[in-house]
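Why do we bother with holo predictions? Because pocket geometry can differ from the apo form. Keep that in mind while you read this record for alpha-D-galactopyranose.
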Amino acid sequence: MIEALDTLFRETFGELPTVVARAPGRVNLIGEHTDYNDGFVLPCAIGKQTLAAVSARADGMVHVIAADLGGLKTSFSLREPIAPSDAAPWSNYVRGMVHGLMADGLALTGANIALIGDMPQGAGLSSSAALENAVGLALAALGGRADIDRTQLALLGQRTEHDFAGCKCGIMDQLASARADEGVALLIDCRSLDATPISIPPDLAIMIVHSGITRGLVDGEYNARRAQCETAALHYGVAALRDLVDVPPQETLDDLAYRRARHVITENSRTLAAADALNAGNAAKLGQLMAESHASMRDDFEITLPAIDDLVALLQKAIGAEGGARMTGGGFGGAVVALLPGSRVDEVTAAVRASYQTPSGLTPNIQIEKPAQGASFLR
Ligand code: GLA
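The structure, written out:
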């Protein structure tokens, strides 16, 4: 991809980029909708990624071109307040990162930016976090801060989602994409932001099955879940649901908020248990925890869809006690993650292809992933 990016950059801006950075997408193994409740998540970075190439300008302008979007372009001035754009909403991730970096003191005099990537969008694999981190890292280097703290980079990405994209997301996606390491998942404590590497047993394959149902316009549902969790935390007098280890009695809390809280509280303990199961190489336990996680997302948090439930059930049946499967990411479509012995990938792939069709009647896209390195420089 880097050659294609260089070519696009030269054709657009008449020079080669001075910095090229990359950042990966992520798949969450378990711990869903726990991050904004100060809880635990267990993601790893994947091979799909976004690349950002940049060079400096002296005229206070930022020019952006996106190869993935058929060469869409946009421009904005650093001499005016930076705000989200209705005309080019795809560029709001770039605008948000520029805004955040400069508010943080980064000296930018203008920039040319070209973007390329192989991330599927709306698949629940955090293409927007990959974009934020790649652009943020490249621009930080342009402003002389190549050593920007990766947690700080992730926090700027989260702020971008809140203020420029309207999604009140947690920190998981940005942190996983910024700080992941090869070969391991990260057990992240979303309160302290400490991340513990958890090795994935080498004989365990990570399979991502795309349901073909893209997540569209679901930020409203996401933000509503977050508000329901906050209602429950307030009711129980805790700073966040993370502070409840056991599911408390319902008391006068309404049924909806109670079920949302029950998902988060049980999901936190499942996530910690899953890290233990991975450490112990206990695939059967891992599978059981993934099944419970999916059921909790379906029944208590209500973020799955019938077609996704069927796909997960199909995978669980095919894999048996040698691993597990669950929906991954924010919900309402996107991808399913499965962990299974590498030796059984072909057989399980065939079983899925034989029985699941995407809404447009196609066999689903299936990828096998190895935990990848977080955001880094290519040049
Ligand atoms: C989205 C958000 C994350 C997290 C997940 C659900 O990916 O961006 O912060 O809340 O949903 O676990």
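The chain has a mean pLDDT of 97.
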